Amino acid sequence: MSFASVLPRISLRRTYIIARRDFLGYIKTWGFWLTALGPFLGIIFGILFPLVMSKSEPTRYASILDDTGLHAAGIEQLLTTENDDLLSEALRGVAKYTVPQDDRDAFNKVLDEQGVEAAREFIKKSNPFVAKYFTMPTSKLVFVPPPKETINTLEPYILGSQKITVDSTPQPLSGVLHIFEKDGKTTAEFWSTSPTKNELVKLTERYFSGKAIDAYLAPAGLSREQAREVRKNAIKVKTFNPNKKTSDTKDPNSQAVTGKDYIPYVVAAGLSLMLWFTVFTGAYMLLVSMVEEKINKVLEMLLATTRFSEIFLGKLLGVAALTLASLLPWILLGALGFWGAAQFADGAIADGLAKAMTTKMLIFLPVFFVLGYVFYGSMFIALGAMAESMQDASTLMTPMVLVLTACIMVVPIGIAYPDSPLLSVAAWIPFSAPFAAIIRLPSDPPLWETLGSVAVLIAASIFVVWGSARMFRHGVLAGGGMASVKAWFSRVVFRRKLG
To answer: What are the residues whose beta carbons fall under 8 Å from the beta carbon of 400, sequence distance 6 or more?
Structure first.
C-alpha cells in the first residue's frame, strides 16, 4: 500500500468553493468590519477622547484670600511654572512624531532657549499638517482677585448667588482658598460647593509640600535643586552582556545592555499575542460555523456533492483567510509604526526594532503561525462537529479557552525571565509551543531547539488533523452529543463493540 493511497482524495475546486463560501459568509457581516476596523476606531477614540475631555472641562475661576500675605504669589507662580513644564513636555511628545530625528537636537535647543512659542513654530515648519491641528494644552484654573476681603462676605459668591466679572462677562466663582494663622500655625481651607477635589487644592498641597521640604533643608544650607542634582549624579549600575556581539572590542561600553536590547523581547511578545488572537478568533469562528451548519442541516447538503476532507480543509482555509483579513489593519499599523520609528524615533528604538526582525524571526514566525492555527483550528472543527447545539459548543469551548489562557502566560514570563526553564519546557509542549518558541527567538536559542519545537508541532498537528477529521466525520454522521463521543471512543479508541 503506497502512502498516496492513504491520503484522502481532495478536489481543489470544491475545497476552494467551501473556503470562499466561509470567507464571504463572514466578511459580509457588520461584526467582521467592526473587528477589522477596531484598531483604527481605537486610535480615533484615543485621539478624540482627550480633546472631548479638555473641551468639556469648563474654565474655573478661583480666588486666594491670603490673610498672611506670604503664599498667594507663590501658589500662582507654581501654577505658571507647572503650565510651562506641561507645554514643554507636550511639545517634546509631539516632536517625536513630527520632527525628523536629524532635527531633534535643534528642536530641543529652540525649546530650551527660546520657549514654547518658538518650538511650536519649529514644529509648524517641520510638519505643517500636524501643527495645523495641534492645540496647546492650557490650564482650566484661572486666578482672580477676591471680590471681598473676608471669607464671610465671600459666601454669596461661593454659593453662586453673586458672580464675579471677567472681561466684562459675569462668571461664577468656583471656590476660595483661605490661608490664615491659627494657634501660631498656617492653616489652609478651601471653600466650594463642588463635591470633588479641586485642582487648586492639589496645587496648594504641592506648594506647601515644597515649602516643608525647603524648611527641612534650609538649616543645613541645602535646597531642593541641590537635592535633585545629587540624585541625578548618584551612582547608577551599568549592565553588560559578554555574549553581545560587537565590532568595537576596545570600547568598554560596547557590550553594555541598553534599551534597544529589550525591544526585541517586546516585539516578540506582541507577535505571540497576535498569534494567540489569531488562533482564538479563527478557532472560535470555526466552532460556531460548524455548529450553525450542523443545526441548519447545511453539512448534510454539502456532503451530497463534497467529501469530508474537502469540507474540513476548505473551512480551515476559509477561516484562515478571514482571520488574515481581520488582522490586516494590525499589520498595516505595525508596518506604519516601523516606518515611523525609523523616521522619527530615537536611534536606539530604531536599532532595537531592526534587531527584533532577525533572520530566525522572519523564517520561523510564519511557520509557527501556520502550525499553531492548524493545530488549534482542527480541534475546534472537531468540537463543532460533536456539538448538537450552541449550549454544547459553549460547554466545549470553556476548557479550550482555559488551555489557551494558560498557554499565553508564557508571554510575560518570556519578557521578565527569557532564560526561564519553564519557557524552554513550554516550547516542547504542542499546546504552548507556538507562543513559547516565538517569545524565545530574541534570546537566540540553539537552532536544534527551535527546529525541535517545529518538529513537535508538525507531528502534533498531523495527529490532531487525523483525529479531528475522524471525529468530524463521526460527529456529522452520528449527530454529535456526549453519547456520540462516548460511542466513538469506545469503538475507535478502546476497540469495544457496542451491543
So the answer is: 283, 376, 379, 380, 383
Mean per-residue pLDDT, 69-84: 90
CA distance 333 to 437: 24
Nearest alpha carbon to residue 25 among 319, 237, 402: 319
The residue behind cell 552582556 is 241
pLDDT in tens, 166-200: 888 898 998 899 999 988 889 999 999 887 667 88
**Which of 55-64, 170-179, 365-374 is modeled with the greatest confidence?**
170-179
Average pLDDT (252-258) is 67
Q: What is the per-residue pLDDT for 405?
A: 82
Secondary structure (H, E, C), the chain: CCHHHHCCCCCHHHHHHHHHHHHHHHHCCHHHHHHHCHHHHHHHHHHHHHHHHHHHCCCEEEEEEECCCCCHHHHHHHHHHHHHHHHHHHHHHHHHHHCCHHHHHHHHHHHHHHCHHHHHHHHHHHCHHHHHHCCCCCCCEEECCCCCCCCCCCHHHHHCCCCEEECCEEECEEEEEEEEEECCEEEEEEECCCCCCCHHHHHHHHHHHHHHHHHHHHHHCCCHHHHHHHHHCCCCCCCECCCCCCCCCCCCCCCECCHHHCHHHHHHHHHHHHHHHHHHHHHHHHHHHHHHHHHCCHHHHHCCCCCHHHHHHHHHHHHHHHHHHHHHHHHHHHHHHHHHHHHHCCHHHHHHHHHHCCHHHHHHHHHHHHHHHHHHHHHHHHHHHHCCCHHHHHHHHHHHHHHHHHHCCHHHHHHHCCCCHHHHHHCCCCCCHHHHHHHHHHHCCCHHHHHHHHHHHHHHHHHHHHHHHHHHHHHHHHCCCHHHHHHHHHHHHCCCCCC
Nearest residue to 97 (alpha-carbon basis) of 63, 126, 64: 126
Under 8 Å between Cβ of 380 and 372? no
Mean pLDDT value of segment 18-40: 71
pLDDT (0 to 100) of residue 3: 43
Q: Which residue matches cell numbers 512624531?
A: 97
Amino acid making up residue 366? P
Residue predicted with more confidence, 300 or 264: 264
Cβ atoms 63, 357 nearer than 8 A: no
Residue 287 and residue 380 in contact, taking contact as beta carbons nearer than 8 Å: yes
**Which residue(s) pair with 142 in the sheet?**
61
Q: Max alpha carbon distance in the chain (Å)?
A: 105
